[in-house]
Amino acid sequence: MKSYQRKVGLLDLLTSSILDKEGTMRHLLVERPYPPYIISSCLALFSVLVLPSLIYQYQNELPTPEGGLIYALLTTLAISFVFFVISTTIMLRILGISAAIIKVIAAIMYSLVAAIPIMLGYYIANYAINGELTILSFLCTGQISEGDWLTGLFPLLIYTAMALGFLVFVGAIRAIGKTPTITAYLLALLCIPLLIGSFIVGITCAEALYPDTSLRIGTFFSSLFEVS
Description:
single chain, mainly alpha, 11 helices
């Protein structure tokens, strides 16, 4: 007999991955035959984190960055994701956790999903306070409007999303490896250097395909943490 009463839906994943991380990850990664919602999670992330900026850019007829920056950025993220999945899977197996690669992919995607409700809440607050989504203007132009204190708090939102994503990832590691909580935390911490290394590989490959973009990509990501 299964240990859960009903299947967790995608909407449940958006909240329960934060409110009940371990239970949700155990259900999705262990109790289900295959990890669900991987593609839908990816589409949800794109719809919330990327699509609004693209729509804003189109509606306001903002110029597209030259030099293939957008393609270089997408290439960096894609290659970084692939290398992070592979390196994490290898590390877990070296440490005695035989995790299927699909479960590692799912664990990473579920961790990223934790950012969705936070970003949606930020959009609502941004519109309620400023009467428009000024955060989209910042993301598209890099400029912050004078007196827009809420956009100035955007780095805090990123750090919060990263912290929650890390906790979800810990829950996923514990579910996959059936490890004690402290061991799951240590394993998750070991994945941080792998993530950094994967990003370096990604940005290096993007630079080879789209010359003179690595510095601009680095500037883009650093600007998200240094709103001024």
